[in-house]
Amino acid sequence: MPAHGTRNLIIEKADTLFYEGGFAATSFADIAAAVGISRGNFYHHFKSKDEILNAVISRRLKRTRKMLDDWQAGGAQPRDRILSFIHMLITNRIKIMAFGCPVGTLCSELAKLDHEAQHRAAEIFGLFRDWLAGQFRALGIDAQAEARAMHLLVWSQGVAALSNAFHDEAFIQREVAGITQWLDSVIVDQNNQKEHICS
Amino acid sequence: MPAHGTRNLIIEKADTLFYEGGFAATSFADIAAAVGISRGNFYHHFKSKDEILNAVISRRLKRTRKMLDDWQAGGAQPRDRILSFIHMLITNRIKIMAFGCPVGTLCSELAKLDHEAQHRAAEIFGLFRDWLAGQFRALGIDAQAEARAMHLLVWSQGVAALSNAFHDEAFIQREVAGITQWLDSVIVDQNNQKEHICS
DNA sequence: ATCAGGCTAGGTCACTTGTCCTAATTCGTC
DNA sequence: GACGAATTAGGACAAGTGACCTAGCCTGAT
Fold first, then answer.
1. In this structure, is residue A55 part of a structural domain?
2. pLDDT-based confidence at A2, cuts 50/70/90?
């Protein structure tokens, strides 16, 4: 296997292990075992554990950007695009109940470790926030676009945290229904307001 | 100092360190340094690190119960009692921005470690949920009481997670205002519904 | 076919971890 | 003041950590 492939495999396995077990609790031995290479061999690919973390964050940023671009490229309406975001809670519900949200839990762990990479990790939230705000602007919601986007982030993070604590799948379903209802009420309000201005 | 005092001091310092640095990342050496005793001396008070964790969770459960009891004992209206809960976000905003919510981050870490104490930690959430549901019932909201309580937990957890990631104090203020507005709208709806039934 | 470079395995390093032990000290009670 | 129990300090222990090294293996370009 070319080095390029091994390097990517290390990043991929580390990503999963950092998510499922936490960054600090994941050792080189764990990653080596998952990849199937020897421990000492790591330093040919990465100088330190922090460098792996940075590569993992870069990978997550890249994949998040790609996912958002894909959602953007599809011919869907802004409402359905936003629903794509919300439905991640259902798609990933098993992992979320077991390990929480990958973004939120990484940010919180890095904050506690006072790790310099914490701001880069938070950029993933920034990607979602900006993309969601763009959807709300596409719906004609300008002034409140960012606040609405943050509200969706807040809501989904809360659902992830509590479904992780309570391990309750039905709760996720109910909350997603609630978020969808809220979204539609926001859209209806916006349409009513537009009507009001036009009339 | 009596053993009882030392034991409590260990629990207290461990509580803070587990919150600010995480459970796994906090070593006996850290706790010993914070308490001002020698490392080896620990096993006279606690058999293992897990036993300290259990004691810390017990302490948090006890203190949470006491706080909720105090809020309950005051002559305040249910609305103001609920606001006491919400305003923890503002009171503790500095620590929340730095370390997240003590309950949420502990639950998430223990879930990743697959630690047996994770369910006991989640009981703290349970205390808040049940108490908040009680307040909503006191407002005449019966069927939806628990859903409303969970919504408050979700919202506050989301605010804690995102203010931790973005380190944005103004965001907390805006969200608390939003939560208060939502609470009042829930109360108004309930009163309107009551009127409707009576008339 | 050769040979240089990328790649790997396995070991070593100093250090920290949770756990445990023992000898000494303190303290309340008589 | 003396005794016994509670408490303490300071180490020792094996295991595991991130980091590093070196000797060899493969592979692809010449």
1. no
2. very low
Q: Check which CATH number belongs to the domain holding B17 and give it.
A: 1.10.10.60
CB atoms within 10 A of CB B138: 15
- Among A108, A166, A175, select the one facing B161 at the smallest CB separation: A108
- Locus of tokens 């590569």: A55
Q: Residue B27 belongs to what domain range?
A: 1-47
- Concatenating the DSSP letter of every residue in B135-193 gives HHHHTT--TTHHHHHHHHHHHHHHHHHHHHHH--HHHHHHHHHHHHHHHHHHHHHHHHH
Half-sphere exposure of B95 (CA within 13 A, CB side): 13
CATH number at residue A160: 1.10.357.10
B contacts of A108 (beta carbons < 8 Å): 100, 104-105, 108, 161, 164-165
Reported pTM: 0.93
Is B142 inside a domain boundary? yes
Residues B93 and B137 in one domain: yes
Is position B86 within any domain? yes
Query: A48: helix, coil or strand?
Result: coil
B37 and B70 in a single domain? The answer is: no
What is the chain A residue with the closest CA to B103? A165
- Chain A interface with B: residues with Cβ < 8 Å: 20-22, 24-25, 98-100, 104-105, 107-109, 111-113, 118, 121-122, 125, 147, 150-151, 153-159, 161-162, 164-166, 171, 174-175, 178
Nearest nucleotide by C1' position to the B28 CA atom: C18
pLDDT digits (tens, 9 = 90+) for A53-95: 999 999 999 999 999 999 999 888 999 999 999 999 999 999 9
Q: Tell me the HSE value of B30 on the side-chain side, using a 13 A CA sphere.
A: 18
pLDDT in tens, A3-44: 468 899 999 999 999 999 999 999 999 999 999 999 888 889
> Residue B31 corresponds to which tokens in the numbers above?
């706790």
Whether residue A121 sits in one domain with residue A94: yes
Q: Please check whether residue B54 lies inside any domain of the structure.
A: no
